[in-house]
Amino acid sequence: MKKNSQEVKHNCSFCNRTITIHSQYDMPIYDPQTGFAICKNCIKDIYNFIAEHDKREEKAVNRKFAESLDDILAKNKPHVIKEYLDQYIINQDYAKKILSVAVYNHYKRMKYGYTHDPKDMNIEKSNVIMLGPSGCGKTAMLQHLAKLLDIPMAVTDASSLTEAGFVGSDVEVAVRNLYYAADKNIERTEHGIIYLDEFDKIARKSGANNSITADPGHEGVQQGLLKMIEGGVVEFTAQGQRKHPEAPTIKVNTTNILFIVGGAFVGIEDIIAKRLKTDATSIGFGAEVQNKNDKPKYNSLIHKVRPEDLIQFGIIPEIIGRLPVICTLEELSEDDLLKILTEPKNAPVKQYQELLSMDNVKLEFEKDALYAVAHKAIERKTGARSLRGILEDVMLDIMYEIPQSNEPRRVIITKDCIENHTKPEILPLETSKTNKTTENN
Ligand SMILES: Nc1ncnc2c1ncn2[C@@H]1O[C@H](COP(=O)(O)OP(=O)(O)OP(=O)(O)O)[C@@H](O)[C@H]1O
Ligand SMILES: [Mg+2]
Ligand SMILES: [Zn+2]
């Protein structure tokens, strides 16, 4: 085969042509052991063949999706979405309503887009900003919503995002996450929902709520996100691929993506209170408000939040302007926490009962014990977030000890176990009739 040391020729096993090899790209596939080879031309042909097939398939999927929108609309009416959320999230009715309507409208806008000429009237999307104290259910609500939806939704932690050039993930990661949630279908990605969690963490540090230290990084992240929220083409590389000039990119237009952002915005209630006080003073009702020395309660303030408070907090006005729907969640009461322990479909108490039942053990919580847990959680001031940890503390020893035998037994958690770390009693199953306790099945 070799004429001289320069000229190398191989036969393409596919098209049978003899190819002179100038570089490895002339015959990208070549196995010297067997001589099996495929030439550049053939590889290009095969690639085009597959790409065309994929495109046809994607188009068919998209057509099917557009046709299914009527069904989707029929089964995702706002009250149905809310009822679904009710199974998992206690209280927060206002937030549930807002989100249910936002999602339903998103579907409607999609249907409108498929059935109308883009030159006709354009139904604008209503991006949502969610605020509420730590552990009140923001992240949990969005996670449950994501499971219900017929369109892709991806949750991205905004606090992990950095301005291009800084260590960390670029803002495009939010769109990339959605792209993977949409099984790499661009069309579906472009109609999905992006939830940016911990959004308050990218507030400008120079915002009134923060110290004076300069903070160009966060402002840069906001600028990056602004472009995405405004709608435009976002380019990113496939997962795991490093960004470099030759890396192939995926392009997604974010114009129709619904953005929901959420965060605790710690201290926002003080900004609201301060504004209300000045408002009241300037129109002559100052005395009434100022008389009250005690800090007004979070729940009575949070619903009064206005865009200017969020700007004051350190979010740039351009972003606030593109998040027209403000969704507020309330601080949970001790009663709410009590319900969270046992009522939701995936309530922590139910989960422990399920776990122990696998070891033949019936787990019961005395009513007072549940009150004690809720009370302890309130003291920790992290909403429902601390419930799990408090339960885990009492359950650890039990969960360690129980599997040592297969005997059917019952375990009763009392108030004393919660308050004084007394070890819960493990009893034989027969005693179960005598003691009146709460069960949640
Ligand atoms: N209203 C609620 N109903 C049921 N469970 C709740 C509720 N609020 C919080 N939880 C539970 O408490 C835990 C923490 O809630 P979540 O992560 O949603 O808090 P968050 O509002 O996102 O707070 P943060 O601002 O600190 O992120 C979750 O396990 C969640 O299931
Ligand atoms: Mg959260
Ligand atoms: Zn060939």
From TrEMBL:
One of its GO terms (cellular component) is HslUV protease complex. One of its GO terms (biological process) is cell division. Residues 332-426 form the Clp ATPase C-terminal domain. One of its GO terms (molecular function) is peptidase activity. Keywords: ATP-binding, Chaperone, Hydrolase, Nucleotide-binding, Protease, Zinc. Gene3D superfamilies: 1.10.8.60, P-loop containing nucleotide triphosphate hydrolases (3.40.50.300). It comes from the Bacteria. Residues 124-284 form the AAA+ ATPase domain. This is ATP-dependent Clp protease ATP-binding subunit ClpX. It comes from Megamonas hypermegale.
